[in-house]
Amino acid sequence: MVRLASGVALAAAVLAAVLLLPVWALRVVACAVAALAGREYLEIAGVHLRAVVLVVALCWVAAAPELPPAYLLLSMALLWVAVEVLFAGDAIQRATAGLFAAVYVGLPLGLLVAVHAAQGWPATLLLVAAIVVSDSSQYYTGRLLGRRPLAPAISPNKTVEGAVGGLAFGTAFMVLAGARALPSAGPAALAGLGVFVVTMGICGDLFESRLKRAAGVKDSSSLIPGHGGVLDRIDALLFAVVPFYLFVRNLP
Known about the structure:
With 252 residues, this protein is mostly helical. It has one domain (2-248). The protein is built from nine helices and two strands, in the order ααααααββααα. Strands 1-2 form a two-stranded antiparallel ribbon. A hairpin with a 3-residue loop joins strand 1 (149-151) and strand 2. The mean pLDDT is 89.
């Protein structure tokens, strides 16, 4: 019951934010979520929590209506590593781990706001809903038909059959709902987008499972009752945002 209640409350909050908030406010919300999820990742990875500053900064920059110039992003990365190594006395490996946190968490959440700025709330909800449909389909298809483990060393409960179910239903949803949310995109393009987005979502889920297994933890935190941490809720979305953004930014 706790899991259901918190899940409904979380879904309602996301829906209200996407439908009601202006882009600048969504940008602030995305940075807040990036700070929470980034902190969880840094704690799992054993990296100094000051890297949350870089996570939030990259999220804010990436949320701009136009994709930031590559030289700006590269300059931010080099400056962070230089400060960490030369002035904070951190090891290069730890400094680059903090940089990865910004790319892994901050960049996708910023680009999600950029999707909203470019194509409006229908496109944003299309991506989020496609990931939810895929995740749910993986779970129920795996429960009903699952026989072969997908990645037993990483996530023993995930099955090949579940992944296929998630891919099929997630792609079908992208095609059907995308016809209204992205009317300028044809069915074939939406089908290809659906396959790519869902596949990346599955990879994102497995990636976070690998992080937690390596750290010996079950959840990224206990912030959301019955669901774990923020990172546990957005792991698939983080991997799926970038290809979706690259697709919609080229639409008329």
